[in-house]
UniProtKB/TrEMBL annotation:
Protein name: G5 domain-containing protein
Taxonomic superkingdom: Bacteria
Occurrences of domain G5 (ranges): 104-184
SMART domains: G5
Biological source species: Catellatospora methionotrophica
Keyword Lyase annotated: no
Amino acid sequence: MTNHTPGNPHTVPWQPAPKTGFLASLGPAQKAALFVGGGLMSIVLACCGGSTLIGALGGSPDPKASPAAAAAARPSALPTKGAAAEGLTVSPSAEPVVEPTLTGPVVEKRTVTETKTIAHGVKRVNDSTLAKGKNKVRTQGVNGTKKVTYEVTVTDGVETSRVQVREEITKQPVTEVILVGTKKPSCHPSYTGACVPIASDVDCAGGSGDGPAYVEGPVYIKGSDPYGLDGNGDGVGCE
Protein backbone atom coordinates (compact mmCIF):
# COMPACT_ATOMS: atom_id res chain seq x y z
CA MET A 1 0.00 0.00 0.00
CA THR A 2 1.32 3.45 -0.99
CA ASN A 3 0.70 6.49 1.17
CA HIS A 4 0.24 9.63 -0.91
CA THR A 5 0.53 12.94 0.88
CA PRO A 6 -0.93 15.96 -0.89
CA GLY A 7 1.76 18.35 -1.98
CA ASN A 8 4.48 15.73 -1.37
CA PRO A 9 5.98 14.48 -4.57
CA HIS A 10 7.62 11.57 -2.77
CA THR A 11 5.75 8.36 -2.23
CA VAL A 12 6.37 6.58 1.17
CA PRO A 13 5.33 2.94 1.68
CA TRP A 14 2.58 2.42 4.52
CA GLN A 15 3.74 1.16 7.89
CA PRO A 16 1.55 0.24 10.91
CA ALA A 17 1.58 2.65 13.88
CA PRO A 18 3.78 1.58 16.78
CA LYS A 19 1.89 -0.17 19.64
CA THR A 20 1.74 1.52 23.07
CA GLY A 21 0.46 0.38 26.53
CA PHE A 22 1.28 -2.17 29.23
CA LEU A 23 1.38 -5.26 27.01
CA ALA A 24 3.49 -3.47 24.41
CA SER A 25 6.10 -2.73 27.04
CA LEU A 26 6.44 -6.42 27.98
CA GLY A 27 8.85 -8.78 26.40
CA PRO A 28 7.94 -12.21 25.05
CA ALA A 29 8.93 -14.02 28.30
CA GLN A 30 6.95 -11.60 30.47
CA LYS A 31 3.88 -11.97 28.30
CA ALA A 32 4.10 -15.77 28.58
CA ALA A 33 4.36 -15.56 32.39
CA LEU A 34 1.35 -13.23 32.53
CA PHE A 35 -0.80 -15.61 30.48
CA VAL A 36 0.23 -18.61 32.60
CA GLY A 37 -0.49 -16.72 35.85
CA GLY A 38 -3.93 -15.67 34.61
CA GLY A 39 -4.81 -19.26 33.82
CA LEU A 40 -3.76 -20.43 37.27
CA MET A 41 -5.82 -17.66 38.89
CA SER A 42 -8.92 -18.78 36.96
CA ILE A 43 -8.44 -22.34 38.22
CA VAL A 44 -8.09 -21.12 41.83
CA LEU A 45 -11.22 -19.00 41.60
CA ALA A 46 -13.21 -21.87 40.11
CA CYS A 47 -12.30 -24.67 42.53
CA CYS A 48 -10.82 -23.23 45.72
CA GLY A 49 -13.40 -20.85 47.16
CA GLY A 50 -13.29 -17.91 44.87
CA SER A 51 -16.15 -16.35 46.78
CA THR A 52 -14.00 -16.26 49.91
CA LEU A 53 -11.19 -14.53 48.07
CA ILE A 54 -13.55 -12.06 46.44
CA GLY A 55 -15.21 -11.34 49.77
CA ALA A 56 -11.84 -10.74 51.40
CA LEU A 57 -10.85 -8.34 48.63
CA GLY A 58 -14.23 -6.56 48.78
CA GLY A 59 -14.35 -6.24 52.58
CA SER A 60 -17.28 -8.67 53.13
CA PRO A 61 -16.93 -11.27 55.92
CA ASP A 62 -16.31 -14.87 55.06
CA PRO A 63 -19.60 -16.79 55.40
CA LYS A 64 -17.62 -19.84 56.63
CA ALA A 65 -15.70 -17.86 59.20
CA SER A 66 -16.49 -18.30 62.93
CA PRO A 67 -19.06 -15.93 64.56
CA ALA A 68 -16.32 -14.31 66.63
CA ALA A 69 -14.19 -13.64 63.57
CA ALA A 70 -17.19 -12.30 61.65
CA ALA A 71 -18.09 -10.00 64.54
CA ALA A 72 -14.50 -8.76 64.74
CA ALA A 73 -14.45 -8.08 61.00
CA ARG A 74 -17.80 -6.24 61.07
CA PRO A 75 -17.39 -2.49 61.65
CA SER A 76 -18.88 -1.26 64.90
CA ALA A 77 -21.91 1.01 64.66
CA LEU A 78 -21.44 2.41 68.15
CA PRO A 79 -19.29 5.47 68.70
CA THR A 80 -16.13 4.97 70.73
CA LYS A 81 -14.82 7.06 73.58
CA GLY A 82 -12.59 8.80 71.10
CA ALA A 83 -15.58 9.68 68.96
CA ALA A 84 -17.38 11.10 72.00
CA ALA A 85 -14.29 13.15 72.79
CA GLU A 86 -14.39 14.56 69.26
CA GLY A 87 -17.86 16.04 69.88
CA LEU A 88 -20.19 13.18 68.96
CA THR A 89 -23.21 12.85 71.28
CA VAL A 90 -23.90 9.41 72.74
CA SER A 91 -27.54 9.10 73.84
CA PRO A 92 -28.01 7.08 77.05
CA SER A 93 -30.46 4.24 76.98
CA ALA A 94 -33.98 5.26 78.01
CA GLU A 95 -35.26 4.24 81.46
CA PRO A 96 -37.77 1.36 81.36
CA VAL A 97 -41.36 2.55 81.52
CA VAL A 98 -43.34 0.83 84.27
CA GLU A 99 -46.93 0.43 83.22
CA PRO A 100 -49.50 0.78 86.05
CA THR A 101 -51.00 -2.52 87.11
CA LEU A 102 -54.75 -2.59 87.59
CA THR A 103 -55.64 -4.57 90.72
CA GLY A 104 -58.87 -5.30 92.54
CA PRO A 105 -59.91 -3.97 95.96
CA VAL A 106 -57.64 -4.72 98.92
CA VAL A 107 -59.58 -6.96 101.34
CA GLU A 108 -58.25 -7.61 104.84
CA LYS A 109 -59.59 -9.84 107.62
CA ARG A 110 -59.13 -8.70 111.21
CA THR A 111 -60.04 -10.12 114.63
CA VAL A 112 -61.39 -7.53 117.05
CA THR A 113 -62.25 -8.12 120.73
CA GLU A 114 -64.41 -5.66 122.67
CA THR A 115 -65.46 -5.53 126.34
CA LYS A 116 -69.15 -4.85 126.87
CA THR A 117 -71.40 -4.31 129.88
CA ILE A 118 -74.13 -6.78 130.83
CA ALA A 119 -76.98 -4.88 132.43
CA HIS A 120 -78.31 -6.50 135.58
CA GLY A 121 -81.90 -7.61 135.74
CA VAL A 122 -84.62 -6.58 138.21
CA LYS A 123 -86.90 -8.97 140.04
CA ARG A 124 -89.90 -7.96 142.15
CA VAL A 125 -91.08 -10.25 144.91
CA ASN A 126 -94.29 -9.82 146.91
CA ASP A 127 -93.77 -9.71 150.67
CA SER A 128 -96.79 -10.24 152.90
CA THR A 129 -94.87 -9.08 155.95
CA LEU A 130 -94.35 -5.67 154.41
CA ALA A 131 -97.20 -3.20 154.51
CA LYS A 132 -99.02 -2.70 151.27
CA GLY A 133 -97.55 0.14 149.22
CA LYS A 134 -94.10 -0.34 150.71
CA ASN A 135 -91.10 -1.50 148.63
CA LYS A 136 -87.76 -2.67 149.89
CA VAL A 137 -84.56 -3.61 148.03
CA ARG A 138 -83.42 -6.96 149.27
CA THR A 139 -80.49 -7.49 146.82
CA GLN A 140 -78.65 -4.65 145.11
CA GLY A 141 -78.19 -5.17 141.39
CA VAL A 142 -74.67 -5.23 139.87
CA ASN A 143 -73.81 -5.07 136.16
CA GLY A 144 -71.62 -7.76 134.60
CA THR A 145 -69.04 -7.67 131.79
CA LYS A 146 -68.25 -9.80 128.76
CA LYS A 147 -65.69 -9.99 125.96
CA VAL A 148 -67.08 -10.26 122.44
CA THR A 149 -64.81 -11.27 119.53
CA TYR A 150 -65.67 -10.29 115.96
CA GLU A 151 -64.23 -11.13 112.56
CA VAL A 152 -64.08 -7.81 110.74
CA THR A 153 -63.70 -7.44 106.98
CA VAL A 154 -61.98 -4.25 105.80
CA THR A 155 -62.11 -3.32 102.10
CA ASP A 156 -59.76 -0.56 100.95
CA GLY A 157 -59.45 0.65 104.55
CA VAL A 158 -63.22 0.74 105.22
CA GLU A 159 -65.03 -1.78 107.44
CA THR A 160 -67.58 -3.61 105.30
CA SER A 161 -68.74 -6.43 107.58
CA ARG A 162 -68.56 -7.61 111.19
CA VAL A 163 -69.45 -11.13 112.33
CA GLN A 164 -69.46 -12.25 115.97
CA VAL A 165 -67.41 -15.42 116.41
CA ARG A 166 -67.06 -15.73 120.19
CA GLU A 167 -68.46 -14.37 123.46
CA GLU A 168 -66.96 -14.82 126.92
CA ILE A 169 -68.59 -13.60 130.15
CA THR A 170 -65.89 -12.27 132.44
CA LYS A 171 -68.21 -11.10 135.25
CA GLN A 172 -71.69 -12.40 135.92
CA PRO A 173 -74.34 -9.73 136.59
CA VAL A 174 -76.25 -9.72 139.88
CA THR A 175 -80.02 -9.42 139.64
CA GLU A 176 -81.61 -6.77 141.80
CA VAL A 177 -84.41 -8.09 144.05
CA ILE A 178 -87.13 -5.72 145.26
CA LEU A 179 -89.67 -6.70 147.90
CA VAL A 180 -93.19 -5.41 147.33
CA GLY A 181 -95.40 -5.14 150.43
CA THR A 182 -98.83 -6.78 150.27
CA LYS A 183 -99.84 -6.74 153.94
CA LYS A 184 -102.99 -4.81 154.69
CA PRO A 185 -102.65 -2.60 157.75
CA SER A 186 -104.72 -3.35 160.85
CA CYS A 187 -107.37 -0.71 161.53
CA HIS A 188 -107.79 0.90 164.93
CA PRO A 189 -111.21 0.01 166.36
CA SER A 190 -111.84 3.57 167.62
CA TYR A 191 -112.34 4.95 164.11
CA THR A 192 -114.65 4.21 161.18
CA GLY A 193 -115.12 5.57 157.68
CA ALA A 194 -111.44 5.04 156.92
CA CYS A 195 -108.90 2.59 158.18
CA VAL A 196 -106.77 4.28 160.76
CA PRO A 197 -103.62 2.17 161.12
CA ILE A 198 -102.34 1.02 164.43
CA ALA A 199 -99.05 2.84 164.93
CA SER A 200 -97.14 4.88 167.44
CA ASP A 201 -98.86 7.96 166.03
CA VAL A 202 -101.22 8.71 163.16
CA ASP A 203 -101.82 12.13 161.60
CA CYS A 204 -104.15 13.41 158.92
CA ALA A 205 -102.61 13.22 155.47
CA GLY A 206 -101.77 16.69 154.18
CA GLY A 207 -101.71 18.17 157.65
CA SER A 208 -98.85 19.42 159.77
CA GLY A 209 -98.35 16.19 161.69
CA ASP A 210 -95.13 14.22 161.35
CA GLY A 211 -96.60 10.68 161.43
CA PRO A 212 -95.13 8.17 161.16
CA ALA A 213 -98.53 6.92 159.90
CA TYR A 214 -101.17 8.92 158.05
CA VAL A 215 -104.84 8.53 157.16
CA GLU A 216 -107.03 10.11 154.53
CA GLY A 217 -110.22 11.55 156.10
CA PRO A 218 -112.83 11.94 156.94
CA VAL A 219 -112.83 9.49 159.84
CA TYR A 220 -115.50 9.16 162.45
CA ILE A 221 -114.82 8.85 166.10
CA LYS A 222 -116.80 6.08 167.74
CA GLY A 223 -114.99 5.89 171.00
CA SER A 224 -111.90 7.52 172.28
CA ASP A 225 -109.62 9.52 169.94
CA PRO A 226 -106.13 8.20 170.83
CA TYR A 227 -104.45 9.97 167.87
CA GLY A 228 -106.23 13.32 168.32
CA LEU A 229 -107.67 13.39 164.81
CA ASP A 230 -110.87 15.27 165.87
CA GLY A 231 -109.44 18.66 166.66
CA ASN A 232 -112.76 20.52 167.19
CA GLY A 233 -114.55 17.71 169.03
CA ASP A 234 -117.43 17.35 166.56
CA GLY A 235 -116.83 13.61 166.20
CA VAL A 236 -115.30 13.86 162.72
CA GLY A 237 -111.57 13.87 162.15
CA CYS A 238 -109.35 14.82 159.21
CA GLU A 239 -112.14 16.89 157.63
